[in-house]
Amino acid sequence: MAYSKARRLANVVDSSGVVSYESLSDGTITVTAFADEDNMSSDSATLLSTQQSIKAYVDSVKGDMQFILEDGDGTEVQLTKDKEVKFVEGGGIDINWTDTDNGTDGDPFDLTFTVNPAQTTITSLLATDIKIGEDNETKIDFEDADTINFYAGNEKQLVLTDGALTPGSNAIVDLGTDALEFKDAYFDGTVEADAISIGGTAITSTAAELNILDGVTATATELNLIDGVTATTAELNYLDITTLGLTEASKAVTADANGVVTHDAGVSEEYTAVTSSSNATTINCRVGNTFAHTLTENTTFTFSNPAASGKTTIFLLKLIQDSSARTVTWPNSVDWAAATAPTITTTNAGVDIFVFMTHDGGTIWYGFTAGQALG
């Protein structure tokens, strides 16, 4: 058996060491010959190509190698030998090779796309159920259609819908604080509040009480006169008048629509005693309507501060004689009946009463004798 195999091998290898054979086989693929074809034109399944022919073929066809890249809108580019593709940064995205070593299947090159946290070119983010925020507990959530929900502390704080901004649930959100206040507020509609405080002072009036102001024609300037008022509730209630123009007990005096004041009881006026000095006595019409003067010397009267022309001033003067008969000189503007001044009583403590009236600012005083030698 050994001899037979050796003999067959000797018949294959000649004296120059050249091996001749009919075919080579691994049991599956049979090679019948070697081929030195640079273009691989035989396209044979039984010929074995040389290294040179394989290299020549690869070199000849690699220039024709190509593939196509297509972008999202359908634009295509064809990549051939010696062409490059560049990924261009922009729109807030950074692109960098982060691993250029090896490039094998187990350790491929790494091309990293990083979204820049500061986005300046995005003009819209439109999606259903999108969330924007620090985390899932503090965010703006579009979880409901036509609604924007604002969360803080993992609780829905505000809800913005078409035509309404409401809290996430009842009475959970303050609008400003004691230290951080809003500037001005403008409302075109109804403001509903459980309580109102101005400058730290709570308003305790009921809505019905405040509605008393409804229809008041006072200007803002006139109403501002209330600013700083120290009157008590009882004092302010003096203005609670049943009938305008008609006086009431413990109420302010008012005039009716015609400007008329009707006294429902008596009228009490100041009784003012005046004295003389250096033979002169002044009746100041601003201090009252009823005066008394006890003569201590001869005196000349002056009537001062009557109402302006067109208004009436009327006052009563009680004249009391001294133990020594004194004389009186009346103002030249007094017009007595028959242009004759009365003769005053000369007896000790004798009382004369006179009434004076003017309607032209004191140009003319009309004098009347109400009674003499009284007392």
N/C terminus separation: 187 Å
Which spans have pLDDT < 50 for at least 5 consecutive residues?
Answer: none
Helix content: under 10%
Strand ordering within the main sheet: 16-18-20-23-24-22
As a whole number of angstroms, the C-alpha radius of gyration is 60 Å
General form: rod-shaped
What structural class should be given to the helix and strand makeup? mainly beta
How many structural domains?
5
Order of helices and strands: HEEEEHEEEEEEEEEEEHHHEEEEEEEEE
Mean pLDDT: 87
* Number of separate strands: 24
Percentage of residues in strands:
25-35%
The major β-sheet equals:
6 strands, mixed
Number of helices: 5
Characteristic key phrases:
single chain, 375 residues, mainly beta, 5 domains, 6-stranded mixed sheet, 5-stranded antiparallel sheet, 5 helices, 24 strands
What does this 3D model show about the protein?
The protein has 375 residues and is mainly beta. The protein has five domains: 2-61, no CATH class; 88-119, no CATH class; 131-167, no CATH class; 223-264, no CATH class; 271-374. Helices cover 9% and strands 29% of the residues. The longest helix is centred in the first third of the chain and has 11 residues, at 2-12. The mean pLDDT is 87.
Task: Set down the secondary structure blueprint.
Elements: H1 2-12, E1 24-25, E2 30-31, E3 33-35, E4 47-49, H2 51-61, E5 67-70, E6 76-79, E7 93-99, E8 110-115, E9 131-133, E10 139-141, E11 148-152, E12 155-161, E13 164-167, E14 197-198, E15 201-202, H3 207-210, H4 220-223, H5 233-236, E16 271-274, E17 280-284, E18 290-294, E19 299-304, E20 313-320, E21 328-329, E22 334-335, E23 351-358, E24 365-374
Parallel strand pairs: 3-4, 16-18, 17-19, 18-20, 19-21, 22-24
Antiparallel strand pairs: 1-2, 5-6, 7-8, 9-10, 10-11, 11-12, 12-13, 14-15, 20-23, 23-24
